[in-house]
């Protein structure tokens, strides 16, 4: 990156964790080779220095001395930390080992600059089926991120008195300031503090979270491309914001779920994987038979959150574990299994990453051909994700591919395969189905960001990670529903120990939960 302009120098200094006197930046910008001058200056700074002085730069440029380093400047005032109450948590049944993790990548600026990352973001709450407008062009990606910013910043505006990044750049040093932006970079400085770059539609601004502040814990929860707000104090040269408090769009603590006005229940399941040699044929039949019993009399709804069938060519070597190799025959077999379910139950289905619809999210619903095959119950067939309302209760159904990413990025206590609902809490907190762009989760470019969680659901239902987990987050019942497939050889190789053949049953009038075991 060329460093000839003061703005770029400031950004680069901030990226490396340094603040600088205005005069120091001017001197560097005037140097014959600003990049080399910057490198030399930084090399000669002591380890714990945070600020670059003009005197120091002059001494380097003159070549007279290495200069007397400044003492680190850490003017951080007291802040009101955002403390998250621990949501109520029920224990899940099984223990498992952790799956290998990935590291955070760095993201290119998406709101104002061109990004050349692999094409794709996109849709929530509403079903995308038939509404997809994205062409995959560059302008769609800019549009979708602007839309994400617009939607989620609205949720934060009441909480901070923010200004656009370019306005903050003009403010005098030492002032209080607040920003709302997309997290475009997270890195630790040489001295262990956190440098977070926030981007809005006007620019990028560096924000520093000091390691010994209690809000430093929240940095662990940050994902690239999510929208947050920060409040703090500008450094003397106004080049960096020292963060006092950090806010997520979040679900209000006062959120009060709607419940059904009669006693009625729903079974929330996912990941049936018909067509896999590991599909649990007999357990499924036990579940279906139970639904015909008096005990299950109130279970009037069956919600299926994706991966109806095992699919074809989803993962390398998958064909060796297929019991049915033709995708249409898999849906026919699945349809037969649906026929075992009582005919008067209402079924809602969204697709998953093993299903025969486009992989990029939001995924449209099954097409006519597949609907014809699965027509036995006249199911409500909708896209992934979708919000469905059942007896007045709104249920956000999402297959869950982004959970892999959230679990990979965040520390164990914030999200893990053993506690998949904790990863769901993070999505609720960020008010986004797939905050991080450009990883595993393939996002379809649309003009609108359909994956923001605009309305808080009463229930959030996901699957995909094949682990059972449930709990409440700010009164939203989160359920990750396990699977109907025994451990595959791939899962064995990476220590995924699936929770299979459990059916979470929700009372729609009280939102209480019972887990039925069909193993
Ligand atoms: O995903 C089931 C779970 O297993 C989910 O957490 C992804 C993970 N998984 C399964 N197979 C693979 C491969 N081959 N690579 C990476 N991750 C994998 P499901 O959607 O049912 O396959
Ligand atoms: Fe699955
Ligand atoms: Zn899946």
Describe the structure.
With 519 residues, the chain is α/β, with parallel strands linked by helices. The chain has 3 domains: 6-62, no CATH class; 124-134 and 254-517, 4-Layer Sandwich (Purple Acid Phosphatase, chain A, domain 2), CATH 3.60.21; 157-247, Nucleic acid-binding proteins (OB fold (Dihydrolipoamide Acetyltransferase, E2P)). The chain contains 13 helices and 18 strands. The protein has helices spanning 6-15, 22-30, 34-43, 54-62, 138-156, 165-169, 216-219, 281-291, 327-339, 368-373, 401-409, 420-430, 489-493; strands at residues 19-20, 51-52, 176-188, 194-200, 203-209, 227-234, 241-247, 265-269, 299-305, 346-350, 380-381, 386-390, 393-398, 459-462, 468-473, 476-481, 502-507, 513-517. The strands form 4 sheets. The chain has a 6-stranded mixed beta sheet with strand order 11-10-9-8-17-18, with no helix packed on it. Strands 3-4-5-7-6 form a 5-stranded mixed β-barrel. The chain has a 5-stranded mixed beta sheet with strand order 12-13-14-16-15, covered by helices on one side. The termini are far apart. The model is unreliable at 1-8 and 65-125 (pLDDT under 50). The site of fe (iii) ion has 7 residues, from loops.
In short, what is this structure?
The chain has 13 helices and 18 strands. The protein is α/β, with parallel strands linked by helices and 519 residues long. The N terminus is likely disordered.
């Amino acid at each position: 990156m060329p460093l000839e302009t003061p703005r770029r120098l400031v950004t680069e200094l901030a990226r490396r964790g340094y603040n600088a006197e205005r005069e120091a930046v001017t001197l560097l910008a005037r140097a014959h080779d600003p990049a080399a001058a910057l490198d030399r200056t930084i090399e000669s700074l002591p380890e714990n220095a945070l600020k670059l002085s003009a005197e120091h730069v002059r001494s380097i440029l003159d070549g007279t001395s290495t200069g007397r380093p400044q003492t680190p400047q850490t003017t951080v005032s007291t802040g009101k930390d955002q403390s998250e109450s621990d949501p109520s948590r029920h224990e899940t049944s099984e223990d498992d080992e952790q799956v290998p993790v990935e590291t955070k990548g760095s993201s290119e600026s998406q709101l104002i600059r061109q990004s050349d990352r692999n094409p794709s973001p996109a849709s929530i709450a509403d079903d995308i089926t038939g509404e997809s407008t994205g062409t995959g062009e560059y302008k769609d990606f800019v549009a979708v991120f602007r839309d994400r910013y617009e939607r989620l910043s609205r949720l934060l505006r009441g909480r901070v008195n923010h200004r656009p990044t370019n306005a903050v750049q003009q403010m005098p040093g030492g002032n209080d300031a607040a920003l709302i932006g997309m997290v475009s970079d997270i890195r630790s400085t040489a001295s262990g503090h956190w440098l977070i770059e926030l981007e809005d539609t006007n620019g990028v601004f560096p924000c520093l979270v000091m390691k010994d502040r209690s809000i430093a814990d929240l940095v662990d929860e940050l994902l690239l491309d999510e929208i947050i707000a920060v409040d703090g104090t500008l450094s003397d040269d106004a080049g960096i914001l020292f963060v006092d408090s950090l806010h997520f769009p979040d679900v209000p603590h006062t959120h009060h779920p709607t419940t059904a006005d009669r006693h009625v229940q729903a079974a929330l399941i996912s990941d049936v994987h018909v067509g896999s040699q590991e599909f649990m044929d007999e357990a499924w039949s036990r579940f279906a038979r139970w639904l015909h019993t008096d005990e299950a009399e109130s279970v009037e709804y069956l919600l299926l959150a994706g991966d109806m069938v095992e699919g074809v060519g989803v993962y390398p070597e998958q064909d060796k574990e297929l019991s049915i190799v033709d995708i249409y025959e898999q849906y026919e077999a699945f349809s037969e299994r649906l026929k075992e379910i009582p005919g008067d139950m209402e079924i809602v289905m969204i697709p998953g990453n093993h299903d025969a619809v486009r992989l990029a999210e939001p995924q449209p619903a099954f097409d006519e051909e597949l609907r014809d095959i699965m027509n036995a119950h006249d199911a409500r067939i909708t896209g992934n994700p979708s919000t469905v309302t059942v007896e007045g209760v709104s249920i956000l159904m999402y297959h869950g591919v982004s959970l892999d990413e959230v679990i990979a990025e965040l520390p164990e206590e914030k999200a893990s395969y053993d506690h998949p609902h904790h990863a769901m809490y993070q999505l609720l907190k960020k008010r986004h189905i797939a905050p991080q762009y450009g990883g595993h989760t393939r996002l379809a470019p649309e003009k609108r960001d359909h994956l923001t969680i605009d309305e808080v659901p009463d229930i959030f239902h996901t699957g995909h990670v094949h682990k059972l987990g449930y709990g409440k987050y700010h009164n939203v019942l989160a359920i990750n529903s396990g699977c109907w497939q025994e451990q595959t050889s791939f899962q064995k190789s990476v220590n995924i120990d699936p929770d299979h053949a459990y059916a979470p049953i929700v009372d729609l009038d009280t939102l209480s939960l019972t887990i039925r075991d069909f193993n």
